[in-house]
Amino acid sequence: MPITSNAFHFRIIAASLLLLLLQGCTQESPSDTSRPNIVLVVSDQQHYQAFGAIDSFFSTPSLDELASESTLFTQAFVTSPQCSPSRSSLYTGYYPHKTRVIGNTGSIDAAGQRITRLDDSFRTIGEYLKPAGYVTAYIGKWHLGKPGKHAQGYDTRVFSTVKGGDSIPDRQKTRHALAFIDAMSSNPSKRPFALFLNYTAPHTIYEYGLKTPPEPIAALETNVHLPKSFYAEDNSQKPKSQTLYMKSDTGKLFYGKGEDIWKTYRGVYRKKVQDFDRELGKILDSLKTHDLMKNTLVIVTSDHGDMDTYHRLVFKGPFGYEQVIRVPLVVHVPKQFGGKTTYRENTFTVNVDLLPTILDFAGLPAGVGDGHSLKPLLIGNSNKKTRTEVVGEYYNKQKWVHPLRILRTDKYKYIDHLIGMDELYDLESDPQEIHNLIGDSNHTRIRKKLAERLNNWIVKQSDPFSTLSATDLKGRPLSPSVP
User: Of 353, 331, 352, 361, whose CA–CA distance to 343 is shortest?
Assistant: First the structure.
């Protein structure tokens, strides 16, 4: 389907969908009244605190309102703090070391081969739902290479996929989505629909600093306070990769700059989050206008976070801080499907849980991938599963390969860097992850225990972490003895 912003084109989308619906479903499926519509909205690079309901520094009225009538997960994590790996997990249900999308598309994998696309051997969510009778749409950022076979899982396909990940403005994505919702609202066959809508904001923070040298913007510095870790960070107690990122990689435009530049960064990021929330509001308003909220499962989340000046860092890189691996997650389950009105859930979740959750609500087998369905938890079923830990992965940044694994428990975070200093944080006494306890003799026992737990996960998952190699910024191999 060609991509334009012409209003006529959106009428064509609606007419084509109505024709499809009138043709009916050729495959037997569960009763349509027993299955909700599904809307999954994904922002890009929105950390868990970039949410007004969590931190009033941010203005997200649309997301706040949805959370007020939904389940808000406060401990939601992603498999990787990077676009392509995380998205491969979100849409297949598997960790990046299994999808083999271990870095952003275009980068080099562990075998020295370019990561071009998500392999056709994997099924994405639409490839489960469409054969089961759902009318499916994928709109917006894909960032998994050429869709190929995966495109067949979506009746409406507006994939935004170019080098760098995205080519369609967010407002245009909204117009495509609204056209789809309009068509579904007059659905003559009463077939359920599933819309997967992927925005770019607040990833658009990269416009500040990368397009032009960062300059202070007084209006955006208003009421901006830098986090405690900005002032307290001690790089001598942190992995050298952190300083290398700021001095010689993407952070170099901000390294050594005055507080006005850093405050402007936070101000710009706040605005980009607001841009996403504004588009989200249009989608939610449309669902309400068409009286679809009563039978639509709505999920809003993000693919990863942003450092947002925490630890004197910007954007994302070889880090395991909360700001890059923890994201918003709001799930609205209509009352007729057992949903709660307002609830805050502190159970650990990982984005591999979303595919089995959606399949479960769609009446399909949910035992897919590395996650588990959140449906029992969302509807108060006693058979709900919970985690005692979550694990995250990171491989590379363009040519720079710096593998690490992250183990997060209720109390501790342990980060195993393949090369260089590891990290250990007591999150109860140090929630901002300022004090690295990896060399503290008082924490030797817990460090060994966490390392063992992480290794057990690696072995169980057949994760090739220990066989990987690291490089310098230019992609030249480094010896394991390099600090």
Answer: 331
Q: Are residues 293 and 431 in the same domain?
A: no
Which stretch of DSSP H or E encloses residue 449? helix 444-460
CA distances from 221 to 175, 225, 278 (A): 32, 9, 21
Buried/exposed 170-207: b ≥16 CB within 10 Å, e otherwise? bebbbbbbbbbbbbbeebeeebbbbbbbbbbbbbbbbe
Read off the pLDDT of residues 149-168 as tens digits, 9 standing for 90 and up: 999 999 999 998 766 557 89
CA torsion through residues 58, 87, 253, 209, sign: negative
* 190-69-390 Cα angle (round to 5): 95
Are both 122 and 177 inside the same structural domain?
Answer: yes
pLDDT tens-place string over residues 332-378: 999 999 997 788 999 999 999 999 999 999 999 999 999 999 999 99
Residue 164 in tokens = 């760098």
What would the DSSP string read from start to end of 190-202?
A: ---EEEEEEEEEE
CATH number of the domain bearing residue 356: 3.40.720.10
Query: Which among 351, 367, 348 is positioned nearest to 359, based on CA atoms?
Result: 367
Question: Are 193 and 73 contained in the same domain?
Answer: yes
Q: Which domain holds residue 454?
A: 392-467
Q: What is the dihedral of CA 362, 363, 365, 368, to 10 degrees?
A: 20
